[in-house]
Request: fold
Amino acid sequence: MKELTRLALGLWFVTVSVISLHGIAIAQDSAKVAPKNVKVILENNQVRVLEVRIKPGEKVPMHSHPAHVTYTLSDVKGKYISSDGETTVGEAKPNTVFWSEAVTHASENLGTSEIHAVVVELKESPKKKRNNQ
Reply:
């Protein structure tokens, strides 16, 4: 019985460790997993501003962003694969601005020119507006 308890406890520990490491693996900082593509150009207690450059055919591994705004500086045609495997393709022209809630994804440049964009990540989630404001 003691052996069975030890085995069960060992399996539980391995399972919890794998789940924890999987969570860490899919929630990586884009500037750390792709330092040649993503550069932090400003960071303070409110926001983190990233410059993103992805050459045609390049891929950025799985990473996460909190709620953020993206401003495109070039044509964009990218493939985005979420942590659950869902794939979407998005396109944008230069000077396009869009909002995104927190997301975990991998990216790939499907276009013929470099993707160049600025991403402004919020450090904390926006608060809901009160009725009297």
About this structure: Residues 7-26 have pLDDT under 50 and may be disordered.
